[in-house]
Design a protein that fits this description.
The complex is a heterodimer of chains A (301) and B (322). Chain A is mainly α. Chain A is 73% helix and 1% strand. Chain A has eleven helices and two strands; from the N terminus they run ααααββααααααα. Chain A has a two-stranded antiparallel sheet with strand order 1-2. In chain A, a hairpin with a 5-residue loop joins strand 1 and strand 2. The longest helix of chain A is centred in the first third of the chain and has 31 residues. Chain B has 322 residues and is mainly alpha-helical. Chain B has one domain. Chain B has 13 helices and two strands. The termini of chain B are far apart. The chains are: A mainly alpha (301), B mainly alpha (322).
C-alpha cells in the first residue's frame, strides 16, 4: 500500500503539471481545452527529438547522471521543449481561439475547436514519429528500497522533485509578481480584471505559454516514468479534468491538490482493480464530485 | 461484371454512411437542437452494438463454449436487438444526465468522454461479459436467407435506409412540435426558458435520452452490418470525432444537412484513403491513416472558423400560422 501511495504521488505530480495549465486556461480563456493532453504528448516528443536526434547530431555525447536512467542532455532538453510547446499553444490561440473570441462565439464552440486541435496535434505526432512507443534511454532502471517498504526508481524521485520545483516557481510567480497577480485576477473575474486595466489579450497569451510549458514538462516526466506514446496525453485527459473540477475551475492551487488526490486514488485503486481501469477510477471520482460538491473543494458557493 | 462491382461498392459505402447519418441525427438532437455537448458518442455506439449482439445471438454451445464467453445470449430476432439497443443506450444516458445536466454545459462533455472510455475498457477487460478483446463474431443477418449471400448487402441497405428514414421523419415531426420548440429555446437561453415555466432539466434529460437511444440503434445496425465487434472498434476517432465533423459540416440544427454531412465526410474519408494509399510510399503505410485524420481535423477547424453554421445552416422554423 505504501508502495502504491508512492506511485500515486509520482502520477499525481505529473497530473498536477497538466491540471495547473488546464485550470488556468479554463479560468482565463473560459473553455475546457480538450487538446491539453495532446500538448503534454507534444512536449514529450519534442524532448525525444532533442535527446535522440538533435543533441547526438551536434556531436554532444551524454552519460547517465548518477543513479538516473538519463543524462544532463535530458535535463537541458526540458527548457526548449517547454518553450516550444508554449509557443505552439500560443500559435493555436492566435490562429483559432482568438479569432473565435473576436467573433463572440460561445465558449463551448471553442471547446469544440480544441477537440479538433487535439486530433490535429495527435495526427501530426503520428505522422512525424509513427505509432510505436519510444524510450528516452535504453537499459535497465534499478529500484531503490526506501524506508516503510516503499520501492521507487531514482527517476521517479527526480519526477517528484522537478514537478514540485516547477509548482513552487509558479507559486512565487502567481503570488509575488505583478503579472501573476493580474493572471489570478483574470481567472477570478475576467470582466472586472479588464475594467481594472489589465491587458486581457496579453494575459491570455501568457496563460497559454505557462499552460503549454507546464504541460510539456508533465509530458516529459510521464515519458521518463513509462514511455513516449502518441496516445499518452489523451489517456491522461480525463484525470486532468477530474483534478481541475476537484480543485475548482480556475484555481491553480486547487489543481495542485486535485492532481495529487486523483493520482493517488488511481494508483491505490490498482490494489483491487486492473490498471486498465485507472481512467475509469478518475471518472468515478469526477462523477462523485459533480454529485456532492460541483464547485470543487476550494470553490465558493 | 465491372458495373456490378461498382454497385456492390456503392451499397457498402451507403450502408456505412446511412449508419453514420443515424448517429449524426442522434447528435443533432443533443447539440443541434438542445445544445448538449456530448463527446462520448462512441460509448452509446458501443453499448448499442453489444446490446444487440447479446440479445440476438445464442449462448455458445459445444466446443465454442470453451473459447467464447458472454453473459447472456437471448437468441431473439433482429428487431428485438435494435429496440433493446435503443433502450439500454437511453438508460445509460439517463444515468449520466442525473449528475451532469443541472451543471455547466462542459461537465456533460467531460462525463461523456469518461463514459466512452470506461465502456471500452469494461468490454476489453471483462471477458465474461462479451468475450473481451476478441469480441463477438457471427452476428445475425436479418432476412439473411432472402437472396444469395453475395447480394445480401442490398437487402441490408434497404433495412438501414428504412430505419434512417423512420428516425428522420420522427425527428422532423418532433422538432416542429411544441416539444421541439422548448428544446431550441433551451439551446438559445436556458434561464429565459426556465422563467417561462418550462422544467429545463426534464426537457434536457428527454433530449439526452432520445439522442442516445438513436445512437444505440445506430450501434445495433453497425454490429449486424459488420457481423463482428471488438472493443477496439469504438475509438474516439471513428465513434465520436467523425460524427461531430459530419454534424458541423452539414449544418448543426438541420436534419437534412446532417445526413448530407455524413455523405460528404465519409466520402472524403473513403476517397482520401483510396488516393493516399496510392501516393504514400510503402514504408509510410502505417502512417497513412493519420494523414487522413489530419485532413478531417483541419476540415472541422476550417468550418468552425469560416462557416460555423455548416453547409446548409439551420432552417427557419416559423409556425405555419405566421
Amino acid at each position: 500500500m505504501a508502495e502504491l501511495l508512492g506511485y500515486g504521488i509520482v502520477l499525481g505530480s505529473i497530473i498536477t503539471l497538466g491540471a495547473i495549465g488546464l485550470t488556468l486556461v479554463y479560468g482565463i480563456a473560459r473553455f475546457g481545452n480538450f487538446a491539453h493532453g495532446d500538448l503534454m504528448t507534444l512536449g514529450a516528443y519534442l524532448a525525444l527529438l532533442l535527446t535522440t536526434n538533435v543533441f547526438p547530431a551536434l556531436g554532444i555525447s551524454d552519460s547517465r547522471l548518477g543513479p538516473l536512467s538519463f543524462g544532463w542532455v535530458m535535463l537541458v532538453s526540458f527548457v526548449p521543449a517547454m518553450a516550444a510547446t508554449g509557443l505552439v499553444a500560443v500559435v493555436v490561440d492566435r490562429l483559432v481561439y482568438r479569432r473565435m473570441r473576436r467573433l463572440r462565439v460561445p465558449p463551448v464552440m471553442l471547446a469544440m475547436a480544441s477537440l479538433a486541435t487535439a486530433f490535429i496535434l495527435r495526427s501530426l505526432i503520428y505522422i512525424a514519429w509513427g505509432p510505436d512507443f519510444h524510450f528516452y534511454t535504453p537499459g535497465l532502471r534499478p529500484m531503490l528500497m526506501l524506508p516503510l517498504g516503499i520501492k521507487l526508481r531514482p527517476d521517479q524521485i527526480f519526477i517528484i522533485l522537478i514537478a514540485w520545483a516547477l509548482v513552487v516557481l509558479l507559486y512565487f510567480f502567481l503570488q509575488r509578481t505583478k503579472m501573476g497577480k493580474a493572471l489570478r485576477a483574470m481567472a477570478d473575474n475576467a470582466d472586472l480584471a479588464r475594467i481594472s486595466g489589465i491587458p486581457t489579450e496579453q494575459m491570455t497569451t501568457w496563460t497559454w505559454i505557462i499552460g503549454g510549458g507546464m504541460a510539456a514538462a508533465g509530458g516529459i516526466l510521464l515519458g521518463i516514468d513509462s514511455q513516449v506514446r502518441p496516445e499518452m496525453g489523451w489517456i491522461l485527459l480525463l484525470p486532468l479534468f477530474a483534478a481541475v473540477v476537484l480543485g475548482g475551475i480556475g484555481n491553480a492551487y486547487g489543481a495542485l491538490v486535485g492532481g495529487l488526490v486523483i493520482g493517488i486514488v488511481q494508483q491505490v485503486s490498482t490494489q483491487w482493480l486492473l490498471p486498465a481501469y485507472k481512467p475509469a477510477v478518475a471518472f468515478t471520482v469526477l462523477i462523485l464530485i459533480l454529485l456532492l460538491r460541483p464547485q470543487g473543494i476550494f470553490g465558493g458557493g | 461484371m465491372g458495373i456490378i462491382r461498382v454497385f456492390h461498392f456503392l451499397a457498402g459505402f451507403t450502408i456505412t454512411t446511412a449508419i453514420y447519418a443515424i448517429f449524426a441525427l442522434g447528435l443533432n438532437v443533443h447539440w443541434g437542437y438542445t445544445g448538449l455537448f456530448n463527446i462520448g458518442i462512441a460509448g452509446f455506439f458501443a453499448i448499442g452494438a453489444y446490446t444487440s449482439a447479446l440479445v440476438t445471438s445464442p449462448l455458445p454451445t459445444g466446443v465454442r463454449a470453451n473459447y467464447v464467453q458472454q453473459i447472456v445470449g437471448l437468441n431473439l430476432p433482429f428487431p428485438a436487438g435494435v429496440i433493446a439497443a435503443g433502450l439500454i443506450s437511453g438508460l445509460l444516458a439517463l444515468l449520466i444526465g442525473i449528475p451532469t445536466l443541472r451543471l455547466r454545459e462542459d461537465y456533460l462533455a467531460i462525463a461523456t468522454i469518461g463514459i466512452a472510455e470506461t465502456i471500452q475498457r469494461v468490454f476489453n477487460n471483462e471477458r465474461w461479459l462479451a468475450n473481451g478483446p476478441q469480441g463477438m463474431v457471427g452476428l445475425a443477418q436479418p432476412l439473411g436467407g432472402l437472396v444469395p449471400p453475395n447480394y445480401y448487402n442490398f437487402v441490408y441497405l434497404a433495412i438501414v435506409a428504412m430505419v434512417l428514414a423512420m428516425v428522420y421523419v420522427a425527428l422532423e415531426r418532433g422538432i416542429r412540435s411544441p416539444w421541439g420548440r422548448v428544446l431550441r429555446a433551451i439551446r438559445e437561453d436556458e434561464v429565459v426558458t426556465e422563467a417561462a415555466g418550462k422544467d429545463v432539466f426534464r426537457f434536457k434529460m428527454q433530449s439526452l435520452v432520445l439522442g442516445a437511444a438513436i445512437m444505440g440503434i445506430g450501434g445495433a445496425l453497425y454490429a449486424h452490418s459488420v457481423r463482428a465487434i471488438q472493443p477496439s472498434v469504438f475509438t474516439p476517432l471513428f465513434g465520436t470525432f467523425m460524427i461531430w465533423v459530419m454534424l458541423i459540416l452539414g449544418g448543426s440544427g438541420n436534419n437534412k444537412g446532417v445526413v448530407l454531412g455524413a455523405f460528404i465526410v465519409w466520402g472524403i474519408w473513403s476517397g482520401t484513403g483510396y488516393f493516399i494509399d496510392r501516393v504514400i510510399p510503402v514504408a509510410w503505410a502505417a502512417r497513412a491513416p493519420f494523414v487522413r485524420l489530419l485532413v478531417i481535423g483541419l476540415l472541422l477547424l476550417g468550418i468552425l472558423l469560416t462557416r460555423p453554421q455548416g453547409i446548409l445552416g439551420e432552417e427557419k422554423q416559423v409556425s405555419r400560422m405566421m
